[in-house]
Specification:
Rossmann fold; five-stranded mixed β-barrel; 430 residues; alpha/beta; single chain
Length: 430
Amino acid sequence: MNKLKKYFTVSEILDLLRRKVEDGFEQVSVSGEITNLSRSPAGHFYFNLVDQSSVLSCALFRGAATRLKNQLSDGQQVLASGRMSLYTKRGNCQLIVSTIESSDRQGLLKKKIEELKKKLQAQGVFDLEKKKSIPDFPRKVAVITSPRSAAAADFVTIFSRRAFSVNLVIVPAVVQGETAAGSIINALDLIKKKGNFDLVVITRGGGSFEDLYCFNQEELLVKVAEFEIPVISAVGHEVDYTLLDYVSDLRCETPSACAELLTEKQMNILQRLESLKRYLSSTGGHSVLRYKERLLRCSPVNAIRNLESSVKLAQRRLDRIDWHRFIHEKIQVIQLRQAIDLSLRNMLELVEKLHLKKRKTVELIQNRLFDLSPNSILKRGYSFVTVDNAVIGNLAKFKNRKEKKFTLNFCDGGIKIISQQEIVNAEKSS
């Protein structure tokens, strides 16, 4: 047996460690986050896997890298499998990776959802023209949810407080986990079998991405898209979106918002009725009370009792009446009324006389204006002379006129006159 050397060279100790590491860890899988990712010109990948407290160097050579299904990136959570080794030149322990896949379940699920979304969109499942209209006043509503959930309690409370004449039916279903999609599909089949439903609401409260993943299952989405009854999606909070929101006929942000939306028009009717009630109470309440009292008085017993009371009251009043004073006041009233009637007749006569006087004055003015009109003056035998349609107002203008022809105008027309001198001149020229 050879004696062990008392010391090792650096290369010897590192080579020994490398063999120990490689023999002890021929195949391991390590989970961690990729950092410091780089790629050599030869096509090899080098990166670190880290967790909260440690760092492990990794090498993915070109042969294994060609089998990658997805691109690697810093910050990505992965599960790397391979053999452990020691890089003797630096003394670093490293993982020689043969296969690597994402360990980010949420990332994988999101990618799967995005692929399904593109598929359904290409099939026209999200088209708006395929959406069914939501009834304004549904008579029977099916709510698919977990009966004991806070979301179901909120929905029922708000709906019951605001709605009337609506039959709300809770259809129990699992709304989280691997069996949730199948449970909701069974609930839809049950609703279809029972029939007479006007609307279906699928609802639950908020949760993690994994909690709501069941509402992205393809079999559920296809079922909802093909369902004959309108379906509303009210899943999660305002920021939560699932593919069910795109497939359903209407998306509500929360279960409470859905209950308020469905009862909005019914609530408006209730408010209108309450307003009318207050109006009738303020305007017709006294009339109703008065008619009610009249009806009570119309009963035989009350009628006789009231009649007796009225007779006694009338008797007491008659006993208190001062008949001489009453007759005197009555006569005064009659005289006052006669005086008022006389005053009214006098006023009417005065107004009529004033009207007649004003009318005569107007007629007199009209007659004067008529007498002063040019046409009236001509009718009294007057006439006027015009030359070339110009009025000759005095003798000087008549004598100095250049045109010897003139027109003598009367009330019913005019006559052209030629002077004797022009006649003589005309005979000489001929």
